[in-house]
């Protein structure tokens, strides 16, 4: 490791390349789990997670991806980004979220057959990708399953970082996918800290977890993982997703393979405690200091949490009955002040006989051509008859009453009003007039909130509409401050 870039600044034309270069980066965080996440804390076991997600590509694969791409003379930082953010191909049975992630990074290929074939199976996707690279010079295949630069990256960076940060380490645990991480890190730690026990964790056979592989498939892996791994633990997907969720909710955001690694560590500690052999792992201070890797983020595996975990483990969405309600856009420019509304109505009355005056004033106040403005008053017919804007049309909203709560303060009000507005409130004739004659709609309610919802709905139907901030209450207040204006714009029964 070269001199650490403590300021974490990467300058120059090659700044992006430096950003991905592990030699230029500060140490990745090593975070001790609080006792509530560590069931062996009372046994003087201290567990740390190495946050490989803090790498530029937020994935442990960034390290071998970088080294393999450099050895392949492909001096492009995106080569370390691609395998790290998402694999270049997905099995057709995978969920929707990783598909979207891969499309975002232009890495999408689907394949069928076994999702996790043997590495040496010529029919499998690993062999097919290699063949693709042979036949297409635009494709670079780093061959992560048999390229020694894979585990060499962890000898060079991951192992030295952990030992520098936690020289008293006595137990290291990592998931096994390509086995590069556990091989390289384990090799370095055993060479420099012989007391350190290395644990490899595989997913249980027939119970897949994104990234790791079941133990029987490692008979075809050529890396010397067997020389560096003292124990192999198998872990199921449900507990892996559960622990990942718990870690993420505590702020250690990580994917299911990280939960799997932690559970594998728990398994080994539990077996040692049951056998009375925990003392064999203690350091000079009587502690057992363990490190497991958080390798990637959970976002592309979101569907898996909902598929595997019980409903009570996933927090329900509060006010879920609003799902699909109030889905249209809002824009502050669609909301007018009461002064703008009153001036527009006044101009509407005074300019009808003067086309030139209309042209000169068309873009003033609210940028609404006055003679094309239709005022729709959503209040009850009784309140409309009592006081209204001159020229307004009463179109009562059945779910709007004088005492109605603001739709933005009460979910039932919002739901009921939005459904009424969305489904047939504005009839075909009004929509036809708005589209064909270029009409502008001004919507009035009691306090301006319901008319904001109505405006959003009408805009979604391509009807240019405005609402009044504060509604009729604010209009009356403003008009009362200008008595001469009041008689020009308001009408009472």
TrEMBL record:
Superkingdom per UniProt: Eukaryota
Domain Rhodanese, residue spans: 369-484
Database matches in Pfam families: PALP
InterPro entries recorded: Cys_Synth/Cystath_Beta-Synth, Rhodanese-like_dom, Rhodanese-like_dom_sf, TrpB-like_PALP, TrpB-like_PALP_sf
Protein's name according to its UniProt entry: Rhodanese domain-containing protein
Native species: Hyphodiscus hymeniophilus
């Amino acid at each position: 490791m070269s001199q650490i870039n403590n300021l974490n600044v990467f300058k120059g034309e090659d700044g992006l390349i430096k950003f991905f270069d592990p030699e230029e980066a500060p140490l990745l965080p090593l975070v001790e789990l609080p006792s509530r996440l560590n069931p062996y804390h009372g046994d003087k076991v201290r567990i740390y997670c190495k946050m490989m997600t803090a790498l530029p590509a937020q994935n442990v694969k960034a390290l071998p991806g970088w080294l393999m791409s450099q050895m392949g003379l492909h001096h492009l930082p995106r080569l370390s980004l691609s395998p790290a953010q998402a694999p270049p191909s997905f099995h057709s049975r995978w969920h929707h979220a990783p598909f979207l992630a891969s499309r975002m990074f232009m890495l999408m290929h689907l394949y069928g057959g076994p999702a996790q074939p043997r590495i040496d199976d010529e029919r499998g996707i690993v062999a097919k990708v290699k063949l693709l690279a042979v036949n297409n010079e635009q494709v670079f295949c780093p061959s992560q399953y048999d390229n020694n630069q894979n585990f060499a990256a962890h000898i060079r960076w991951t192992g030295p970082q952990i030992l520098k940060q936690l020289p008293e380490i006595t137990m290291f645990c990592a998931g096994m996918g390509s086995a590069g991480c556990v091989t390289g890190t384990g090799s370095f730690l055993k060479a420099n800290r012989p007391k350190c026990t290395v644990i490899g964790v595989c997913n249980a056979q027939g119970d897949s977890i994104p990234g790791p592989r079941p133990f029987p498939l490692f008979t075809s892996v050529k890396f010397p993982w067997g020389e560096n791994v003292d124990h192999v633990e198998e872990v199921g997907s449900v507990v892996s997703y559960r622990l990942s969720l718990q870690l993420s909710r505590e702020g250690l955001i990580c994917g299911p393979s990280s939960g799997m690694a932690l559970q594998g560590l728990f398994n080994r500690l539990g077996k040692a405690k049951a056998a009375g052999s925990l003392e064999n792992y203690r350091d000079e201070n009587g502690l057992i200091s363990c490190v497991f890797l958080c390798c990637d983020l959970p976002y592309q595996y979101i569907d898996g949490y909902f598929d595997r975990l019980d409903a009570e483990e996933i927090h329900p969405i509060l006010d879920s009955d609003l799902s699909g309600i109030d889905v249209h856009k809002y824009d502050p420019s669609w909301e007018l002040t009461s002064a703008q509304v009153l001036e527009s109505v006044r101009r509407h009355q005074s300019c009808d006989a003067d086309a030139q005056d209309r042209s000169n004033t068309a873009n003033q106040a609210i940028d609404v051509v006055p003679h094309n403005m239709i005022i729709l008053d959503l209040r009850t017919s009784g309140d409309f008859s009592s006081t209204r804007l001159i020229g307004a049309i009463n179109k009562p909203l059945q779910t709007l009453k004088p005492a109605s709560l603001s739709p933005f303060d009460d979910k039932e009000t919002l739901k009921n009003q939005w459904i009424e507005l969305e489904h047939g409130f504005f009839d075909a004739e009004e929509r036809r007039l708005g589209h064909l004659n270029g009409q502008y709609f001004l919507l009035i309610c009691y306090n301006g909130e319901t008319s904001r919802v109505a405006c959003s709905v009408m805009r979604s139907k391509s009807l240019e509409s405005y609402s009044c901030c504060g509604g009729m209450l604010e209009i009356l207040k403003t008009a009362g401050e200008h008595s001469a204006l009041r008689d020009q714009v308001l009408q009472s029964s």
